[in-house]
Amino acid sequence: MRTFVLAALAAVTFGLFGATAASAGKWQESILGVPSGASAPVTRAPRSARRSRTVRRTGAGRRVSSRSRSRRVRNRRVRGNSRYERRVRQSRRTSRRSRRVSYRGRGSLSGLASYYWQPQRVAAGGWFNPNALTAAHKSLPFGTRVRVVNLRNGRSVVVRINDRGPYIRGRIIDLSRRAAQVVGMTGAGVVPVRVQILGRG
């Protein structure tokens, strides 16, 4: 009798374990779509998604890494657009050309002259003084002394070149306000003049 009871308990126990395993296999097959007894597949991100972290495609189809983009941004030079910086760049270009020209203290030029008075930095360094006898020229070396003669009234003034300009077609020199008052051109603004080069001083 005892042997029969033990055999019955063993049969019931093995039946419960088999039913549990079968139900687990049915759940795996219905939910994951994987047959019972097979292991679930390991999912990976697409190769393009992994590559997009460090590489992107430009409009031309060329691949550029994020590291090279950041290096390009750091190396980018931002140039100013102020009037003073433009005058300095123009001064450097004209200074290179003026090195090839020899000024021996003689010679004259003819053209139009204008004047300016706005506070600003000059190409030779420092600030512009409208009350000083100075002038701006495109290519004469800084420190050159010139005599400017107003051809309308014959009045003249000696000025020193310390700035660059004027960059307007037909004009050869830009006087300070004080120099313009000496030659009597403040009312007209622009007058024909003759510029005589006196030399460095």
How many beta-strand elements?
A: 8
Order of helices and strands: HHEEHHEEEEEHE
Helix content: 25-40%
**How confident overall, as mean pLDDT?**
74
Q: Given the helix and strand composition, which structural class is it?
A: alpha+beta
Q: Give the strand order of the largest sheet, numbering strands 1, 2, ... along the chain.
A: 3-7-4-6-5-8
β content, as a range? 15-25%
The CATH C-level class name of the domain at 104-200? Mainly Beta
CATH architecture of the domain at 104-200: Beta Barrel
- Outline the biggest β-sheet: 6 strands, mixed, barrel
Work out the helix count.
5
Low-confidence stretches: 52-61, 95-104
Radius of gyration: 44 Å
Coarse shape: rod-shaped
What is the CATH fold-level name of the domain at 104-200?
A: Barwin-like endoglucanases
Give the N-to-C terminal Cα separation.
136 Å
